[in-house]
Amino acid sequence: MSLSEEEAFLTLHADLPRQGPGLPEDVHWALEGLEVGREARILDAGCGPGADLETLAEARPMARIEGIEQIPHLADEARERLGHFTNVQVTTGDMGALSDFYDFIWSAGAIYFLGVTEGLRLWRQSLALGGAIAFSEPVLDPDAPQAAKEFWADYPQVTDYAGLKARVEAAGFEVVDHRPLGTAAWAAYYMPLAARVARLRAGADAELEPVLAEAEREITLWRAAPDHVRYELMLVRPGTGPS
Fold this sequence. Notes:
single chain; alpha/beta; Rossmann fold; 7-stranded mixed β-sheet; 9 helices; 41% helix; Methyltransf_25; SAM-dependent_MTases_sf; methyltransferase activity; methyltransferase; Methyltransferase domain-containing protein
């Protein structure tokens, strides 16, 4: 039976610890930088298999924590991973259509599905008074090497940090703090992914060839310019600008 493009993607990405770059220390930095309370209502928007949900649950055991993920298989992985936490709930759904209020929204590498300005405007409607958002988004400097430019070629909305800040402000938010995700954060995603590509290639499944080749190309480009292929982790709050 021929695999669909979606089935091939899920076969490649199944059972990986993360679906994008990041480390627990990034979550802790955001929680502390935004002074997220011990009993806060927290949402992980686009939670994937639950790596950051797990860190949030461990860091704020008295908080009410939710994860929302549109891909059912990844949501199921998150539920299994977080099953022993009594304060965590995972929902399969659209992170652009929230129906509750939160003190803190965390989103690792997922807001680009909505657009930074558009996503922040939507999420602002679900922020409790005094609430804040932390998200990571690609950035690309104009003088970045060609490998970095090729890495983000399929994401024409990518800008440098100044452009990202402007998109945040266009949504009526202000930047509290920001920092790039380091090389170790990318390695935490790409090393398991590279190992899985190697295992799947050993099985010689020709139907997976396109997604395996694309993953290998992505990893090769990252390795060619690890200091320039990056996300910026942004801590933002609603401001007084236009929304």
